[in-house]
Amino acid sequence: SNGKDQTIKLWDIRKMSSDTSCNLGYRNFEWDYRWMDYPPQARDLKHPSDGSVATYKGHSVLRTLIRCYFSPEYCTGQKYIYTGSHDSRVYIYDVVTGAQVAVLKHHTSPVRDCSWHPHYPVLVSSSWDGDVVKWEFPGKGEAPVLANERRVRRQYHD
Length: 158
Known about the structure:
- This protein is mainly beta.
- Helix content is 3%, strand content 32%.
- Strands 7, 8, 9, 10 and 11 form a five-stranded antiparallel sheet that branches. A four-stranded antiparallel sheet has the order 3-4-5-6, with no helix packed on it. Strands 1-2 form a two-stranded antiparallel ribbon.
- The longest helix has 4 residues, at 73-76.
């Protein structure tokens, strides 16, 4: 899951049950991700009952929902988690280590979505800047590169 706390969480649903009860108290804060920056001091906070298996940090989720995905099984063995980001980039994390393996930079506005081809080493990202960008993986563990600057598509609707 990609959260408003600026992290991706990996969950094991087999560990989602608990005998612990939760008492929801009054919310004593006014932060809203749709129009406010995330408080820097909150980036390192961890909920005391966090039941996630792993946490991935570095990207930002502000102003809109941004999904995260596993890379395809066929061409990567699902060894990566990737997501767009409010900071105009695409982030790729190693599922096991949590390390950022690539940060793709081209867009000038939040990257709203991205999609990895199920069989080829190609990823496409779309942004509020109107660009749809194709990224190709050269192989041998190298970071993806912009496929062809001329092939960037920009389309506007009235």
